[in-house]
Amino acid sequence: MPVSAADLLLDERTSLHARIRQLQEAMGVIVESSRDSNADDEHDPEGQTIAFERAQLAAVTDQAVAHLAEVDAALDRVAQGSYGRCEVCRQPIAPARLEVRPTARTCVQHAPGRTR
């Protein structure tokens, strides 16, 4: 029996919640480990690495949170019955596009960033 889009999105949502939790825990470890240090990031050779790790981890966390919002929006479209329809032209989004990008809001023709 084929898996529904909603099931795939719910699985992705669960995975994202777990990933975000892991990233937040990792950030907590980095912050805690540098809390008792008197090193300042600007002048300590290790400080630059710690600052880079924090910035990189924050960026990855932000991306995961943004993707979670996309998944939640797609689940809302499933619930409303509008999932799989382009938000611009209202035509069906190709199944191959939804397979590759289940959170797609538009058909390929109306995809953001596409030159026409």
TrEMBL record:
UniProt xrefs under SUPFAM superfamilies: DnaK suppressor protein DksA, alpha-hairpin domain, Glucocorticoid receptor-like (DNA-binding domain)
Q: Where are the dksA C4-type Zn fingers located?
A: 86-110
What name does UniProt use for this protein? TraR/DksA family transcriptional regulator
Q: What is the lineage of its organism?
A: Bacteria, Bacillati, Actinomycetota, Actinomycetes, Micrococcales
Q: InterPro entries of this UniProt entry?
A: DnaK_N, Znf_DskA_TraR
Which organism encodes this protein?
Answer: Ornithinimicrobium avium
Ranges for domain Zinc finger DksA/TraR C4-type: 81-108
Q: Which GO terms describe its molecular function?
A: zinc ion binding
- What keywords would UniProt list here? Metal-binding, Zinc, Zinc-finger
